[in-house]
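Request: Show me your protein:
***
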Amino acid sequence: MSTFELQPDFLIKDAGSLRSLYEPTHALALQKQRHTLGPNAQAFIRRSPFLCIGTQGNEGRADVSPRGDAAGFVRILDDSTLAIPDRPGNNRLDTLDNIIANPSVGLLFLIPGYDETLRVNGRARLTTQRDLLEEMAVGERLPKLAIVVEVDEVFLHCAKAFRRSHLWDPGSRQDRSEMPSLMQMILDDTTGAPDDPEAMTRMDENLEVAYRQTMY
């Protein structure tokens, strides 16, 4: 595949040029922004089993990471503070390293079947405070830490993105078998996947076992 290059004459480099491409912002789009979690935002968060968290390190490296658990896994501590349990993952710690370097975070909450999303921006800290972790335990397993977010702004996004994508439409679901398994794709991009299909199947099965054993 040849390298794509942007033509300099078409680059948008300043806010004036950017704004000239769009109609003025609707007044309601500006007014909907709040600085605390109102009743509707809190209800949305309690129903949400999934969010994406965006972070950025001191050197400008951006990262977006998924977080998911049973609906209500994000705790509302007060009308301007949230706590997100850090469940077991791959231990890259990209999000957590970034928060230590730069506390600014962006959260996007999703609810299956809802076309709207909730956006929360704020400042995050990491804590191992025992009483907080105990509130987010699953069985006897506590998260190693919690991401506590002080809310700066919160607002709902309209349904356009989800309706364009048909994300929740059963008819738009794609056949997972049309792409390799996660394990095979990782091996393809690193050490190389085995040529033996049975060996690859065993690796996929071992991954499923690991999922069950290390979910919490």
Observations:
- The first helix runs from residue 15 to 19.
- The first strand starts at residue 50 and ends at 56.
